[in-house]
Amino acid sequence: MSKVMEMIKRIPPDTKKKLAGKGYFPQEGYIVKHLPVPPNCLSVPEVSDGFSVMSSDPSLTVLRKVLRKVEIIKNSRSGDPNFESHQVEANDLQAVVDQYLQIRGTSKPARDIETHYGVNKELNESSTKAWLEKMRTLFIRKGSGFSSRSVITGESYKRINEVGIPLEVAQRITFEEKVNNHNMNYLQELVDQNLCLTYREGLSTYSLRESSKGHIYLKPGQIVHRRIMDGDIVFINRPPTTHKHSLQALSVYIHDDHTVKINPLICGPLGADFDGDCVHLFYPQSLAAKAEVLELFSLEKQLLSSHSGNLNLQLATDSLLSLKMLFKMYFLDKFSAHQLAMFLSPALPQPALLKANSVGPCWTAVQMLQCALPSCFDCTGGQYLASQSEIMRFDFNRDVLPTMINEIAASIFFGKGPGDVMRFFNVLQPFLMESLFVEGFSVSLKDFFISGAAIRNIKRSIGKISPLLYQLRSIYNELVQQQLEKYIKDVKLPIVNFILKSGLGDLIDSKSESAIDKVVQQVGFLGLQLSDRGKFYSKTLVEDVASHYHNKYYDEGDYPSAEYGLLKGCFIHGLDPYEEMVHSISTREVLVRSSRGLSEPGTLFKNLMAILRDVVICYDGTVRNVCSNSIIQFEYGVNAGDLNQHLFPPGEPVGVLAATAMSNPAYKAVLDASPSSNSSWALMKEILLCKVSFKNEPIDRRVILYLNDCGCGRMFCRENAAYMVKNQLKKVSLKDVAVEFIIEYQDQRIGNESSQTEAGLVGHIHLNEMKLKEMRINMAEVVKRCEETLKSFHRKKKVGHIFKKIELSCRCLPSQVLREQTYWGKKCRKTRERESTQNICMIPSESPLSAEIFRGISSPLSMLWDGTVFMASLCVVHLVGLKWQNLEPDNSSFTSCTGLLS
C-alpha cells in the first residue's frame, strides 16, 4: 500500500492534467489505509437459548477471519517478502476484506438491545423464557402480511361506505382467488391485463410479472393473487380501538393520491379527524374472513351505537356550516337550485316563488333539503314535521339544526331501514359540500377583536375574583369552587355572546362548552390555567409559580389573579412571559395526561377484555360464557316483548360491549382535564378497585341507593324522590334547629325523688318550630334521642353521678311570648361543688346534646365532655319506594345502616 501511495504522489502535475482530460483522476481515498470497524451498538446482538446461538452478526465472523489472516501472514514471514509472495498475501487479504465490507453495514438498532428485541431484563435468568418473548415480539405481535398504514384525508363526494386507497398500495397488496368454472373467464381477463401478480399451482408459486412460461392459461384449482380493485372489501381501524364501532368494513376505490380517503361522516365512530391521524387497513383473504367482515363490520350493520342506541353517523363541521349558511340565505335562484339539484335524487319541486323581482323563480332551502328524503316518508318532532316526504314545518335555528337532522335520520332508520339512511347521507353530504363551495365562507379580523371597553370590564371583573382564589387555595371548599366557576362563567358571558353573533359562531358548535372555551381563549381571556387539585403536576409546582410571580413580575395590586393561575390575557393580543409560562404548564399537563395517564384505562380495558371477551348472547336469548357454557344472564338488556329486541341478535358480543362501555369513558375522563371528569374517573376507580385497595376510611363506607320507578307519569318524579332521599339522609343535629340557649338560676326547686327544695340551674333551648315541621321531625322523637344520650353517660365513673341529676322536659311557649318556637328545658340539680354544675351547663357547641343527631347519617363524631370521649352515630331513614334489594355499598367489606320505613 505504501509503495502504491508513493507511486501516486510521484506522478507529475502535467501527467495528472492529461489523465484528467481523459477522465482519470488519481484518488488517494481509494487506497484503504485502515479497516473500518463500527462500534458494537451497530452490531446485531447474539441471542441464545442457553445451548445454541439463535441469532448472530455474520460480519463479526468475517472480521475474525480478517484478523486471523493478518496473523497468518505475520507468522509466515521470515524476512522481507519477495514480489510473488507479497502479491499472494495481498490478494488473499484483499479478498477477505472485500467480503467483510460487503457484509458489514446494518442500520443502528435501539440502544437498549434487549428491549428492542423483546427480551425482558427480568427474564435474563431464564434464557428459554427470553427466547419465547423474543419470538412473540418479532413474529406474533402486531404482524400482518395483508395490511397497510396511511394518513387519512377527507373526500366528501364519495359514498360513506367507500374508502380510497392509493395506487402505490393497491399495486403491492393482493387478494387471493381460487379458479373455478364460474370465475375462470373473469380471472383470465385479469391475467391478460396484467392485474395479477402471482399464481400458485400445487406447491409451486409463479410470478406473472416476468413469466418464463409465456402466456398463461388458467385452470380450475389454481390460486391466483390479483391486485386490489374497485369494489373490494377491506376494514379499517384507527388505533387505539376502545369500542366496537372503531372497526369499519368499507368498499375500495383506487385513486392516484398518496393518502387514504374516507367520508367525513364516519370520523365519529372511528374517533378520527384530518390533522394527521393514521389508520390501519386490513385486507381479508379467505372467503370466511370476507363474510365475517361483511356481517360484523359493515357500515350498514353498525349505524346504531351498541352502547347508546344513537346513530353513529353525525354531520361534520363543514356540513353543519353549509347547512347553517343555506338556511341563512334560504332562497335560491334558478341557477343555484339547478346546480345543487345535480346531487339530489328526485327532480326539483315547483318553485316556492314563481317570480321574485327580476331574479325569476326561487326555491327555498327546505325544498332542497326534502329532496334528500326517501319516498313516502313521514316523521314528526318538536321542531319539524314531514308528510309524504314533504317538510311541512321546520325550525331552522342554527342551535337545533344538528339535532333535527339526527332525529330525521333516526326516523328513517326505524321507519325505512339502514339502506335508506345510507342513501340519505350519500345524497345530503355532497349536496351540502357543493353548496358551501358555491357560496363560500370567510372570517375577517373583526370577528376576533372585541371592543376595548369590554376588555377593560373583563380585566376589572377578573381582578375581583382574587379573594375567592385565595380562599380556595388556602382551604378547599366545594361551594367556593362552584361559586368561582359561576363567576368565571358570568365573566365569559359577553365574550360568548360576541362569538355567537360573529362568523366564528357558525364554525363552532354553540352547545359545546369546550369549543366555546377555546374561542374565548383566542379572543377574550385564558381563564384558570393552574389548579392544585386533580392535576398531574404537584402542589409544590403551583407554589413555586406563585413565588416566582412575587419575585420577578407584577405588583400584587396590579394583577392579583395571576398568582393563582387565572390569566386575563388572550392569544389575539399576545401573552406576557409569565402568562406564557403558566399556559405552557397547563398545556404540558394535558400532554402528560394523554401519555402517562392512559396507562390506567389501558390496563382496565385489557383486564375487562380478558374476562368478558367470551360472553355473548346465545340463540335461546341467554347470555353465556362460550368457553364454560355457564349462564350469566337469562335475558339481556330489555324486557320480554320489547320492540328493540332486534338490536341484540344472537352472537352479539355483549361482554366486549360492556368492557368498551367502561373503558371508553375512562379514556375520555383521563384525557379531559376538567374537574368533573377527574372526579368521575376517581369515582370509577374507587368502585372498580374497592376489593383490591380497601381502606377503612369514611370514603370507603358509602352505600349506593337505587330508587324504583313509580310509573305515576308526573314530571320530575324521580328527581323529587332523589331530593326526598337526600333530605332524609342529611344529618340534622340539635344545634341545627336551635334558636338560642339561655341559662336560668332558680333558688327554690322541688325535685322529683324527694320533696326537698334545693337550688338549681335550668337551661332553656329554643327550637325553631317551622324548621322542625319542614324536616318532619317530631318533638317527642327529639326528647327521646336526648334522653338516650344522657342515659349512655350514666355509666361513666367520673361524670355519671352528674348526668343522673339532669332532667329533661318539653313544652310550647305561649304564642304571645314566642310564637313559632318550641321550648324544652334541661334542669341540673344543685351539687356540692359549683364547678361541677358549671361543667354541665356549657354552651351548645360543647354539649353532647347539642350535637345529638336525630336524623340522617353521620360518621362517628368525637366530642370532648369533661375529659371523656362521646361517640354519637345514628341513622334514621324515612323512605318510600326505596329499592332495598339493589342497595349495595361502594366497598363490600363494610356496610351498616339502620332503616325505618314510613
Provide structural commentary.
With 902 residues, the protein is of the alpha+beta class. The chain has ten domains: 1-31, no CATH class; 34-122, no CATH class; 139-172 and 228-307, Barwin-like endoglucanases, CATH 2.40.40; 174-226, Dna Ligase, domain 1 (2-Layer Sandwich), CATH 3.30.1490; 317-439, Enzyme I, Chain A, domain 2 (Orthogonal Bundle), CATH 1.10.274; 445-594, Topoisomerase I, Chain A, domain 4 (Orthogonal Bundle), CATH 1.10.132; 597-613 and 657-689, no CATH class; 615-652, no CATH class; and more. Helix content is 39%, strand content 17%. It is built from 31 helices and 33 strands. The chain has a six-stranded mixed β-barrel with strand order 3-11-4-10-9-12. A four-stranded antiparallel β-sheet has the order 5-8-6-7, with helices on one face. Strand 21 and strand 22 form a beta hairpin. Helix 14 (401-415) packs antiparallel against helix 15 (418-439), helix 16 (452-463) runs antiparallel to helix 18 and helix 23 (599-612) packs antiparallel against helix 24 (654-671). It is extended. Mean pLDDT is 75; it is low at 47-52, 105-125, 751-757, 815-846 and 858-902.
